[in-house]
């Protein structure tokens, strides 16, 4: 049975390990090892994801199968360069929504996204924004089912490699 709760400080190491594994399994073959390592350290090292658990600007919701983290979503203030006509009112950003491969199709992703949408609304956001890798067609279809629309390109750095991401927004 999958359970959900907000992240706490003690979850940091396990959460970072899960996030590193998910990112590497999904995108690891796209990058030089040095670029991948630099990104993983920046995004999921001590000052990245684990360090944001106690930052009041962020909220991180986790999904557990027993005591194993199988998914998480991180919500916070928007840092994406959205086109002015796409950023309506107060904008929140969904920074990450990761689900382990063994949980794809099991409802973890939808539950986490529905939490993010509800939490952004409750926090007063008028728009929820995210970026998604241009060739991550599964994720783009997933977000589109919830009403997210593509509003432009975003250059996403992974080490020294610059990927094309798509900016997507949902009017809340």
Task: Describe what you observe in this structure.
GO terms for molecular function: acyltransferase activity, transferring groups other than amino-acyl groups. This is Ribosomal protein S18 acetylase RimI. This protein has one domain: Gcn5-related N-acetyltransferase (GNAT) (Aminopeptidase, 3-Layer(aba) Sandwich), CATH 3.40.630.30. The chain has 5 helices and 7 strands, in the order βαααβββαβαββ. It has helices at 12-27, 33-44, 49-52, 108-122, 137-145, and strands at 2-6, 59-65, 68-77, 91-99, 127-133, 149-158, 161-171. The protein has a 7-stranded mixed beta sheet with strand order 1-2-3-4-5-7-6, with helices on both faces. The two termini are 30 Å apart.
Q: Please describe the biggest sheet, giving its number of strands, its sense, and whether it closes into a barrel.
A: 7 strands, mixed
Q: How many angstroms does the end-to-end distance come to? A: 30 Å
CATH architecture assignment: 3-Layer(aba) Sandwich
What is the CATH third-level topology name?
Answer: Aminopeptidase
For the secondary structure, the number of strands is 7
Q: Output the structural class.
A: alpha+beta
Spatial sequence of strands, sheet with the most strands: 1-2-3-4-5-7-6
Shape: globular
CATH class: Alpha Beta
**What is the total number of structural domains?**
1
What is the N-to-C succession of helices and strands?
A: EHHHEEEHEHEE
What is the average of the pLDDT values?
A: 96
């Amino acid at each position: 049975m999958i359970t959900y709760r907000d992240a706490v400080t003690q979850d940091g190491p396990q959460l970072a390990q899960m996030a590193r594994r998910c990112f590497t399994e999904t995108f690891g073959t796209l990058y030089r090892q040095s670029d991948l390592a630099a990104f993983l350290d920046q995004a999921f090292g001590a000052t990245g994801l684990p360090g944001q658990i106690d930052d009041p600007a962020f909220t991180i919701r986790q999904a557990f199968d027993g005591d194993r983290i199988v998914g998480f979503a991180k919500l916070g203030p928007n840092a994406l360069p959205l086109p002015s006509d796409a950023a309506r009112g107060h904008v929140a950003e969904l920074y990450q929504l990761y689900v382990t491969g063994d949980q794809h199709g099991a409802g973890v992703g939808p539950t986490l996204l529905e939490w993010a949408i509800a939490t952004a609304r409750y926090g007063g956001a008028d728009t929820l924004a995210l970026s998604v890798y241009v060739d991550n067609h599964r994720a783009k279809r997933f977000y589109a089912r919830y009403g997210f629309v593509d509003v432009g390109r975003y250059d996403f750095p992974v080490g020294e490699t610059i990927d094309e991401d798509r900016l997507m927004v949902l009017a809340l």
